[in-house]
Amino acid sequence: MNDTAALALTAVLLGGPAVMLAPFLLARRSSESHADTTAAEIRAQQRRQAAGREKELTR
Q1: Is 26 left (phi over 0), alpha (psi -120 to 50) or beta?
Q2: Could you read off the pLDDT tens digit of each residue along the chain, which spans 59 residues?
Q3: CB-based burial of residue 2 (10 Å sphere; 0-12 exposed, 13-18 middle, 19+ buried)?
């Protein structure tokens, strides 16, 4: 057994399911954060475009 396998086995035995699920929880949190940020940017862009169209219609 190499060092990496021994470290992984030790982490799994000590941490149990938490160690195995941690990468999935971190990935989920990261993707949700990215989705929230992207949605806010899209809403801001749509507001800017809507404001620009109103000016064109009033000319």
Answers
A1: alpha
A2: 888 888 888 887 888 878 778 888 889 999 999 999 999 999 999 988 887 766 655 65
A3: exposed
Q: What are the structure tokens assigned to 39, written together?
A: 């949605």
Are 11 and 4 within 8 A, CB to CB?
A: no
* DSSP string for 5-50: HHHHHHHHHHHTHHHHHHHHHHHHHHHHHHHHHHHHHHHHHHHHHH
Q: What is the pTM of this model?
A: 0.53
Say which residue the tokens 């801001």 belong to.
Answer: 44
